[in-house]
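Q: Protein A?
A:
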Amino acid sequence: MKGIHLIVVGKLKDKNLESLEADYLKRIKNPSLIIHEVKSCEERLDEEAFEVIKKIDSIGKGRIILLAEKGKQFDSPEFSKWIFSHLEVNQNLFLVIGGASGHGQAIQERADECISLGKLTYPHKLARLLLVEQIYRGVTIRDGHPYHK
């Protein structure tokens, strides 16, 4: 199934963050957004991220996108266009948020692109919530919903 797969380090353990994330996730219907939680060790992140990608994308039509501080930055309307232009030509988008030590070498070498949430540094669990919100915002921009205004 075509969609967005968010590969993240660790589980959300804060009930407030869980509640906010769950609210956005239930609002996002098309495209599907699935969150895959993996271990926090750098080498393990690479292995587990590749395992998730292989299970979903055995024919290699998806794009691997890393969230990194030096990645491309967007405003919300640009991000919306970027997401949906990729989904038009790619089966899946795999957005990977690394842990405290960033991304391992193997996933960096395999990534198709890097994007950034901005110049500020965020804890990865907060970055996860911000990215989910921005995906929801992107959907509302595409659909002409007033949420973005």
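Q: Protein B?
A:
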Amino acid sequence: MDKPHVAQKEPYAVEVEAGKKYLWCSCGLSKKQPFCDASHKGTPFKPLLHVAEESGTVYFCGCKHTKSPPMCDGSHNDL
């Protein structure tokens, strides 16, 4: 597996809390999207730590092809 699995072709809108840590799934295999559940084991992918700077809604990438991980940058529109 050299490319991530597309979990969904749209972002995940998530309410985050300032200072809280989130582990974003980069492989696309997690059953707890957009967060890691260790399904990446045996793949070259690793979760990405995101620490929320402020509370509010953020848009985590769902297609796993973003050029600005872990946030959505619209890359799903090109898949």
